Amino acid sequence: MKITKLGHCCLLIEESRLKILTDPGMFSTSQNEMKSIDVILVTHEHQDHLHMDSLKAVLRNNLKAKVITNRGVGKLLEKEGIGYELLEDKQGKTISGILLEGFGEKHATIYQDFGQVVNTGYRIASRFFYPGDAFYNPGKPVEILALPVAGPWLKLEEAIDYATLLKPKVCFSVHDGMLKFIGPTHKVLHTFLPTVGIEFRDAVKDIELVF
């Protein structure tokens, strides 16, 4: 599996011959020019995860790409005339021999009900888990974790505790597009995650990670 971090939570995941793009949001633009995308996974409707102009650009360049998401995002896509397939909590779908699974229902709390939307995390090929904006435990083994590390809905302490709970072999940071400097955050993760047996890999914009 090869994962290229395009920025924030926009990832290009290549598994076998399948190319999956996650969350084409407002913190990255390189996805707009990409070709040969098979699947676009959208975890929820906030603009740092779903920028409609970006999604439309991706679809123009990838006419056969399938958008897979939840009912909350689906309502917005319907208004734009964009087709999609549902994949929600505890549901599975196999595409080109690769199993995609959905987990979770709600975005993590920001404050009271502010910004509360449907959020679906996605597990890919029984190896990789990207939870979107939530610390949801899929209840299945996670080898590779995309770990949210910053934002109005989390503390870094919670991120470390979440990784410790899931016990992946390796993780890398996502949801960090609002950070001016990522170094201090990475330093904390490099300090503590190895003590519980988790390898942490630096993930900055346009870096490729091979697993």
Structural features, described:
With 211 residues, the protein is α/β, with parallel strands linked by helices. The chain has a single domain, classed as 4-Layer Sandwich (Metallo-beta-lactamase, Chain A). The chain has four helices and 14 strands. Strands 6-5-4-3-2-1-14 form a seven-stranded mixed sheet.
Describe the secondary structure blueprint for this structure.
Elements: E1 2-7, E2 10-15, E3 18-22, E4 39-41, H1 52-61, E5 66-69, H2 71-79, E6 85-86, E7 91-95, E8 98-103, E9 121-124, E10 128-130, E11 144-148, H3 156-166, E12 170-174, H4 183-192, E13 199-201, E14 207-210
Parallel strand pairs: 3-4, 4-5, 5-6, 10-11, 11-12, 12-13
Antiparallel strand pairs: 1-2, 1-14, 2-3, 7-8, 8-9, 9-10
Short description:
This protein has one domain (about 1-210): Metallo-beta-lactamase, Chain A.
